[in-house]
Amino acid sequence: MHSEVVEFLNAEVSGCNAVANIAEVGDSAVTVEPTYIKQVCQALKGSDKFKMNVLQVISGVDYPEENQIEVNYILASFIENTELILKTRVARGEGENLPKLESVCDIWKSANFQERETYDMLGVVFENHPDFRRILCPDDWEGFPLRKDYVVQEKYMDMVVNPEDKINKADIEFFAKMRIDHEDPTQVSGSWVDEHVWIDQDLANKAKDRVAQIKAAKKAKADAEKSSQEKGEE
């Protein structure tokens, strides 16, 4: 299908320079020039042959060593039962020179939140978007978290963003108490590796002792059942 898509796009959207990238492993894709992304999407949706009537995902990948950001559009035709990954690349840019693409919100309404998220995380501006702003981070957040050179700001609104002791101690203490009180504490999971180091050691030791006690009892019971079974077979 990819070669047919390329042939169609190059004929329908002059200058889009559609190229098929056939993967030996994983998903193949079609790449186009960023200037023509909206025209390409319109052509694919309106095509009587491809009928790409659904935009499933817009995502991005940062390639700082190439000074580029790749934007991926995963399209589908629920009519033809087909799927297509459409890719384009833009220069990374900073500050007033962020990369720009034309919004496709008026082609697929599902693009609205996805374009906002791609902007929020990677700093790609979608021009003519009906409600263009961040979607996950506050509007005045600094930087774009999925860029590979992103460094989190130390404070936001006088709050430390990433403190060294960023541990939910109340959560850990809750699970420790559950292990002490539960009939079978081995069935109580926790949230952190080596979580006992973060809470009151007396509480942690009681929880660990209770788990060890039940594990030992389970092992003794299993050994007794195995021994009894072996004697019965004799």
Describe the fold and architecture.
- With 234 residues, the chain is of the alpha/beta class.
- It folds into two domains: 1-161, 2-Layer Sandwich (Beta Polymerase, domain 2), CATH 3.30.460; 168-233.
- Helix content is 34%, strand content 20%.
- The protein contains five helices and nine strands; from the N terminus they run αββαββββαβββαα.
- The chain has helices at 2-12, 37-46, 111-122, 169-181, 201-233, and strands spanning 19-21, 29-31, 54-63, 68-77, 82-91, 100-102, 125-127, 155-156, 159-160.
- The strands form three sheets. The protein has a five-stranded mixed sheet.
- Helix 4 crosses helix 5 (201-233).
- It is elongated.
- The relative contact order is 0.08.
Give the structure's gist in a few sentences.
This protein has 234 residues and is α/β, with parallel strands linked by helices. The protein has helices at 2-12, 37-46, 111-122, 169-181, 201-233, and strands spanning 19-21, 29-31, 54-63, 68-77, 82-91, 100-102, 125-127, 155-156, 159-160. It is 34% helix and 20% strand.
